[in-house]
Amino acid sequence: MKKGRIIFLLVFVVGVIAAAVYTLQFLYAKEQAPQATYSLEAPAMGDILKKTVSSGSVVPRKEILIKPQISGIVSRVLVEAGDTVDQGDLIAVVRVVPDMGQLSSAQSRLERARISQHDAQRIHERQESLKKNGVISAQDFEQSETSLQQAREEFRAAEDNLQIVRDGVAARSGEASNTEVRSTVQGMVLDVPIQVGNTVIQANTFNDGTTVATVANMQDLIFKGHIDESEVENLHVGIPLILTLGAMPNRTFKAALEFIAPKGVEDNGAIQFEIRAAVQLDSSDFIRSGFSANADVVLDERSNVLTLSESLVQYDGSDPFVEAQTGAQQFERRDVKLGLSDGLTVEVLSGIALGDSIKQWNQPKFD
User: How many CA atoms lie within 13 A of 283 on its CB side?
Assistant: First the structure.
């Protein structure tokens, strides 16, 4: 019996020692567990640019369509796309194919004018003879002379009309024929949609006419794009744009907003408003018509202000605050007043100062 008690006491002592060892190991392991630490970031002086993006293209402000003054067949083309022309330069020549109805009418008019002139000539000669014999007055003679002059002028006009209908030019014009298609402006030829042998039509009531060439001033370009209705009220004429062209990704161009459409159009379920901006170019710059472009529309900006990453800001309801370092991994709450934000960086108006260290509260590390 005594022996059993001794064994029980030994087992009990061993159990107590084992429990003590286990407890010590657990406490030691807990003390050695990694502690959470936070990286720090400091506010800095910088610029903030609030902007939105508009997609569109760069095109000439005006593209002038050069059309013939008469219908016919193209006999010569003297320019091609990319050529520069001055006002009045010859672009193409048209050979007239007369309309049979107009030709017949012009021939008939000429014949009537010839008859009228011949009749006026006979009357004038007779009146002249009568005046010499003192039979008629000078006034009657002058009337016959006037009638003869009018008949001669009508005959010349009928001749010119027939030549214009048949040949496209009158002998008395003394100027370039209207079979010659000339540029009406100075600029670059963007397109020549016709070639020798094509039939062209002059503009009339029922037809816009055939375009012989398109000419534009490539130093007077505009950006045409669209902007969402949620941003349009933040715009006003004159605000700056920064253009990035798809074909020239390493360069940017400045532009100034000059037009905001008063009416929106639906595009894929969203209301979009057209905008136009004048592109600012150096004399050596050349941008091809139709280049796709993205415009960063500057809505607001701040220069040389205290800035902080948006990711460092926390919110208590609608009240923003940050956690500023007070010691080694020790922080205190600082309420801050914020200004302009571009979505990544925010302007800090008060609450912290340059040189403070701010906790990256959502990025803990464990040692």
Answer: 0
List all residues 6 or more positions away from 140 whose beta carbon is below 8 Å from its beta carbon: 127, 131
Q: Is the pLDDT of residue 270 over 50?
A: yes
Pairing assessment for the beta strands 337-341 and 199-200 based on DSSP bridges: unpaired
Q: Compute the average pLDDT of residues 216-220.
A: 94
The whole-number pLDDT of residue 366 equals 46
Q: How many CB atoms lie within 10 A of CB 244?
A: 16
Main-chain dihedrals φ then ψ at residue 299, nearest 5 degrees:
-90, -35
71 confidence band (pLDDT: 50, 70, 90) = confident
Sequence-distant contacts of 337-342: CB under 8 A, at least 24 apart: 338/313, 339/302, 339/305, 340/48, 340/50, 340/300, 340/301, 340/302, 340/305, 341/48, 341/50, 341/310, 342/48, 342/49, 342/50, 342/51
| Domains along the sequence of the chain with CATH | 37-50+303-366 (2.40.420.20), 52-60+218-300 (2.40.30.170), 63-98+177-216 (2.40.50.100), 100-167 (1.10.287.470)
Q: Is 223 helix (H, G, I), strand (E, B) or coil?
A: strand
From CA 323, how far away is CA 361, in angstroms rounded? 8
Q: Can you tell me the distance from the alpha carbon of 328 to that of 331, in angstroms, rounded to the nearest whole number?
A: 8
Whole-model pTM over 0.70: no
Tokens of 212: 């012989």
